[in-house]
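Lab notebook: predicted structure, single chain.

Context: the supervisor wants predicted structures on file for every construct in the current expression panel, including those that have not yet been purified. This is the next one on the list. No modifications to the sequence; it matches the entry in the shared construct table.
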Amino acid sequence: MTTNDPIEQDGEVTRRNFLYVATGVVGTVGVASVAWPLVDQMNPSADVLAMASVEVDISPIPVGQTVSILWRGKPVFIRHRTEKEIARAISENNDPMIDPADDKDRAQNPEWLIMIGICTHLGCVPLDNTEFQSGDYGGWYCPCHGSEYDIAGRIRKGPAPRNLDLPKYKYLSDTLVKIG
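Prediction complete. Output recorded below exactly as produced.
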């Protein structure tokens, strides 16, 4: 008994089978060519990757001075603290605070304080009050609503709900810090 199965003739590839396979391949390539740009556009651009981390040479910063750098569009304060400032920050660890934090938890190296320079109340940039000593705590003062931070960036007075934020950073050497 013979059958006329148009799909298979003597084990050879028929025109119909070829068209099925060819259509599948063309469809797959078409879907991939449409999907690739959609997926690729979700990757971060080169300028975003460049801002993801920044290396800072801290050797030229004199003792007692603060520099501000830009990282991810935010100011980052890098303070080279004096021995007196370090001693004061450590001695105030047990003082009553709005957001209690030890100085050793805020600075990997006691000589250097690295923190994001944005007030945690409404996002203003606090002023370095260490030179003028006009506040009660000798750190930073937010002119928008009067928040005062001490020399370790801990909130001591005012409406700010928490201490100045700390970025992720690590020391690549004694004089080079990678932020981010």
